[in-house]
Task: structure prediction
Amino acid sequence: MSKKNMDKLLKNKKYQAAADQLVAAVQMRIEKIKRRRSKVEAANDLKQIVKEKYGEIAKASKSSGCCGPTCCGGEESKIVGYTVMQDEYNNLDGYVADADLGLGCGLPTEFAGIKKGDTVVDLGSGAGNDVFVARSIVGDEGKVIGLDMTEEMIEKANANKIKAGFKNVEFRLGEIESMPLENDIADVVISNCVLNLVPDKRKAFEEIYRILKPGAHFCVSDIVIKGELPEGLQKSAEMYAGCVAGALQQDDYLSIIKETGFENVEIKKIKVIELPDNVLKEYLNELEIKLLKNNNVGIFSITVVGYKP
Result:
């Protein structure tokens, strides 16, 4: 082969290699876009599941009253039966029975350090259970804002507010990942078994950071896990809406909080959550249930605080 033809061949191979690299780069980009789209679609699907489930609960409690997690919503609202983690509220000042739908997993106000005159924001406020407890602490001088993405819950919360006659309580419709709230307005942010319903938990804590005043803090109760949940539980819509399937590993949960910029992050309370066998049998076979228990997979409710510098 002549030198001229050899140079031409090498040049063509060089171009071909460059073209192959370009095609590969484009294909990778397309795959990333597809994955991003699938994640967005999945997140939207999960939000819709949560809206539907909690909308059912609000409607059921409105039509028949709610006597707690064993009856509120009946068979159609299975999620209520799964939130078997709630602490008792009825001995707290400000408790409003009609606002208690049995959906929490802790008492965030217990460790929130709320003071008279504070502005408190409750994320995923539901029918207003924690809002009204917080309002009893801040008094007439303070303000409490409840945020929820379910229209039926906002409607029920406002009905409870009117019944109670509170003037310094407000309920807003909106999502935690993009709160309709100003920067630096809150002295304390609370939330009760809700952040696990948010697909983008990092964005949720970024928003919490944004609305807190400098030096202010959050106190949230949420579900975390240690170990790997069986696939049957992970893929269950009801378990997701019940804060279980969407739960992060405890270390990952705390890492997101710290990476957001919060300081002095501390778990104030932790308790083990045990799902009853009759619940597990709906999603797992006998062998899977046995493995779940023998592998020491832990489901926990934690109440954690963190401070914005």
Residues 114 and 266 are 17 Å apart (CA to CA). The longest helix spans residues 3-64.
